[in-house]
Amino acid sequence: MSPKVHLDKKHTHDLLKEMIRIRHFEMKCVELYEAQKILGFLHLYDGEEAVSVGVMQALGPADAVVATYREHGQALARGVPANAVMAEMLGKREGCCRGRGGSMHIFDRERRFYGGNAIVGGGLPLAIGVALADQTLGREAVTACFFGDGAVDEGEFHESLNLAALWKLPVLFVCENNLYSMGMALERAEAETDIARKAAAYAMPSEHVDGMDVIAVEAAARRAVASIRDLGGPYFLECRTYRFRAHSMFDAQLYRSKAEVDAWRAKGPIARFRKWLDDNHFTAGEEIDAIEREVDAEIAAAVAFAEAGTLEPISEVELFAVMEAVPQ
Amino acid sequence: MSDPSSAPLRMTYREACKQALRQALQADPRVLLMGEDIGRYGGCYAVTKGLLEEFGEQRIRDTPLSESGYVGAGIGAAMAGLRPIVEIMTVNFSLLALDQIVNNAATIPHMSGGQFAIPLVIRIATGGGRRVAAQHSHSLEGWYAHIPGLRILAPATVEDARFMLVAALKDPNPVLIFEHVMLYNLEGDLSAGVDGVDIAHAKVRRPGRDVTLIAYGGGLFKTLEAAASLEKDGVDAEVLELRVLRPLDTAAILESVRKTKKCVIVDEGWRSGSLSAEVGMRIAEEAFFDLDAPLRRVCGREVPMPYAPHLEDACLPQAAGIAAAARELVKPT
């Protein structure tokens, strides 16, 4: 992986396509939720797409990802097939977790995607362990650990940053700071709201990045991964972003104003990147149309795949509660 | 002169735990130890003394006081190919890692549709008797035995202390080994020629006809002592040691109870919602009509463990109380 971003036409189109793919995938999820085909919680990534799309550009197949419960975007950007994600959300046997995980628990062993973790902060210690295993077994890999600003409140955040720095583990901490942990505003939860500054106190390089700017995120992630591979220790990125929609599907959003949401929407990562591409003559309207047609076809196919999926027999519900062997 | 290789080897429970760890470290480069003061300090109970010098800092990892952090790291490392053994100094401290154990270790294999196993071993010191009061003395293994996805072991003998770990490392599931703190100085014999134990079955430690005494962990030797005193009264008690607290060996429990038709369950944990309640209920469900007397329990008294020796002793099951409970069943007044 080069530490530099190459802004050619193909790459910029790939970034745009990936962000639109995530956005459209989730718009379809909303429809399916309203049709009661997706149940339970559904935490949308709407507004935060530039973070995972940017970060994933810096990772290769040998690297690992530990994700949050707002992880559809993280999973899709990592390359978890849309079919497997959608089928999981519909609770089908063909889903990546055979209907046991749902929206919040996407796992993909083949792509080193270690969940889908829905206890805030609980994924950070796992990332420490994955990185420790890679370091111990001599595998050249970086573990990218995603979490939100709410995780910063948890003790596990502080324990994990300390362990990573102490043991010089190859962990890329990616804080998706969307300013709210559910309804709790960052400044109401943290006495020190500069999250990157907290990370610096654990003796690791850390920086802020505009999480609404996919190029800035990619550039920062490439710098971070290069530093981890060169120096052997962790790196911390605070990506400043915003969630445009409710925390989950039911949320009166009493904790923030419509004007605030609208102001952030105007800075949205897709709209902003499209404008940048237009201003720099990277795209024509028909190319955008083609991108949208392509992702919509993929999503329609994923929905069809999921709808046609089968149900795990109830007789198998206990399968994997106790494992028979370690999967190889 | 007898052949030295066939003579039993006498050692402490502590030494057996250490030899088990050493064997595991020698046998598999994927094994590493993590825990508080296991290295330079030598282990709170001196179980890991000398291992740092022998295996180095990469494999014997002293951790900061971050139970959730290093237990979670053990889980992640197990998912990614290592065979970590994590030590938690005392069961009360394990509560700081409960999130990782219950929400991650026990759930991820199932929640991921079988994509990930968690071949992790967690050793936890447990139990009362050391005059260290209410934040270092409890027996919470019954709580852990409630959780699907975990295997819970309670070695009480030197043989099990020596060999349960090897079997636990072969298990693809998270295994919690509870070592009762009053057992570390206990001496016992390792039979020549024995090089392993199963981690699935309860064991009859003293066969008998008149009453079944079910015990585990630190309760075993008090229960054997009770059986010896009962023998003087002409009561032939059978002592069944659970060994494995999850999954329970229900068949062995039922077999013994069907034979003796009377049963006392000994559990250092608090009575309400305890492991003894589970054992008793399984007997009630499956062997109710085989019983000649009500089930009885001898449990920890339901208070936070007090410091003063006479108070602590009164809160723990003791041999006299176990024998008295059995006598009541065998010779009803």
Report on this structure.
The complex is a heterodimer of chains A (328) and B (333). Chain A is of the alpha/beta class. Chain A has a single domain, classed as 3-Layer(aba) Sandwich (Rossmann fold). Chain A is built from twelve helices and eight strands. In chain A, helix 1 (9-34) crosses helix 12. Chain A starts with 8 loop residues before the first helix and ends in a 21-residue tail after the last helix. The relative contact order of chain A is 0.17. Chain B folds into two domains: 4-190, 3-Layer(aba) Sandwich (Rossmann fold), CATH 3.40.50.970; 203-330, Rossmann fold (3-Layer(aba) Sandwich). Chain B contains 13 helices and 14 strands. Chain B has helices at 13-27, 51-55, 67-79, 91-94, 98-105, 108-111, 141-144, 158-170, 219-232, 250-260, 275-287, 309-315, 319-330, and strands at 9-12, 31-35, 60-62, 83-88, 121-126, 151-153, 175-180, 187-190, 203-206, 211-215, 237-241, 244-246, 263-270, 296-300. In chain B, the strands form three sheets. In chain B, strands 3-2-4-5-7-6-12 form a seven-stranded mixed beta sheet, with helices on both faces. Chain B has a five-stranded mixed beta sheet with strand order 9-11-10-13-14, with helices on both faces. In chain B, helix 9 crosses helix 13. The relative contact order of chain B is 0.12. At the A-B interface, strand 2, helix 5 and helix 6 of A face helix 3, helix 5 and helix 6 of B.
